[in-house]
Design brief:
386 residues, alpha/beta, Aspartate Aminotransferase, domain 1, Aspartate Aminotransferase, domain 2, 13 helices, 17 strands
Length: 386
């Protein structure tokens, strides 16, 4: 902790815990204290800590080759393309691999512009798409944007669920509309299927691409393999990352087959598609499919949501979410309550100043969820350990 404080850049505010071990939905600190992990690496730990599928895949691939750029062909990359498209709608036809969610959004923006020949990108207020310049330009919150302006031009933000405003903004100059099916960092707000279907039709009528940012909602998190499937949407481009490789860095952009191939040499990624991350991603997707994590997230998410809604506390303004992506909005700032919750043995996140966000591994079990709900109730009723 002393070394990190001394030599770290300072951009990350730290929780004073030194975590040394993880297994399933639990982590342990240096003193051997156990916590239920509802942070999950900001939604990365979908298949659980120390997942044996991931460990086996990493060990096996590390003994073969870890570095093989996209200049050359490689089996793990090729098979990941194939297996990723198998869990996508049949009309999706190609994949670009990178290293993170922000990189996936950057690539999607570039692809939308080069494929349509247009410049305007429409995004939503409350939306969060990353911190690099293109992704930050799509992100709405001024606290992220203003220190780094001027940003990339051509971005317009509209109110979620306002059909009239959206229809007035998407026009013949619009390259794409990008959205999160559940706005995570913005406060865990699920968008309505009615609004998203309307947005899809507007995009189609104007020739704009419809981009689903599934970086946090993808890979079974919301009770479907991808959240857009819940509303029977047909996105042109899907952005993926976080839990895709069971903890290793990876991102992906999946494109509709009818869009064709991206022109050669117009984009690239040194580490994108590396064999180690591809092997881990294949193992993660296999684990998700074999263990039906989408159905598990749907069922346990209902249990979790119902438990949190049953908490009797005057502090609670709202409880909302999909699957195992849940937010508890308070009438006060959430930071002190998250600290108190950690003291009770549960780690959770903020999503804006007043929201407690829960992104547990999808391998969490009923008893662990009941433990979390009990501790949240204790903290919000003032009966915690402090």
């Amino acid at each position: 902790m002393e070394l990190e404080e001394r030599y770290g850049s300072g951009v990350y505010p730290k929780v004073p815990l030194r975590l040394v071990k993880g297994e399933g939905a639990k982590v342990w600190d240096e003193n051997g204290r156990e916590y239920i992990d509802c942070v999950g690496g900001h939604g990365v730990c979908i298949v659980g800590h120390s997942n044996p599928y991931i460990i086996e895949a990493i060990e096996a691939q590390a003994k073969k080759i870890m570095v093989c750029s996209e200049t050359f062909y490689h089996e793990e990359r090729a098979l990941l393309y194939k297996e990723l498209l198998e869990v996508m709608p049949h009309y999706m036809g190609s994949v670009f691999l990178c290293n993170s969610g922000a990189e996936a959004v950057e690539a999607a923006i570039k692809f939308a512009r080069i494929l349509t020949g247009r410049k305007k990108i429409v995004a939503l207020k409350r939306g969060f798409h990353g911190r690099t310049f293109g992704a930050l330009s799509a992100t709405w919150n001024p606290k992220y944007r203003e220190p780094f302006e001027p940003l990339v031009p051509g971005f317009v933000h509209v109110d979620p669920e306002n059909k009239e405003e959206l229809e007035s903004v998407i026009d013949e100059d619009t390259a794409a509309f990008i959205f999160e099916p559940v706005q995570g960092e913005g406060g865990v707000y699920p968008l309505s299927g009615e609004y998203l279907k309307f947005a899809q039709e507007v995009c189609k009528s104007k020739g704009a691409l419809f981009i689903s940012d599934e970086i946090q909602t993808g890979f079974c998190r919301t009770g479907r393999f991808f959240a857009f499937q819940r509303y029977e949407l047909s996105p042109d481009i899907v952005c993926l990352a976080k839990g895709m490789a069971g903890g290793l860095p990876i991102g992906a952009v999946v494109l509709r087959d009818s869009l064709g191939k991206i022109p050669s040499r117009t984009h690239g990624s040194t580490f994108g598609g590396n064999p180690l991350s591809c092997a881990a991603a294949r193992a993660a997707v296999r684990f998700m499919r074999e263990n039906a994590l989408d159905k598990r997230a749907e069922e346990l998410g209902k249990l979790f949501l119902e438990g949190l809604k049953s908490i009797n506390s005057s502090l609670v303004r709202d409880v909302r979410g999909l699957g195992l992506m849940i937010g508890v909005e308070l009438k006060k700032r959430s930071a002190p309550y998250l600290k108190a919750l950690a003291d009770e043995g549960v780690l959770a996140l903020q999503a804006g100043p007043t929201v407690m966000r829960f992104l547990p591994p999808l391998v969490i079990n009923e008893d662990e969820i009941k433990f979390v709900v009990d501790k949240v109730g204790r903290v919000l009723s003032g009966n915690g350990s402090n």
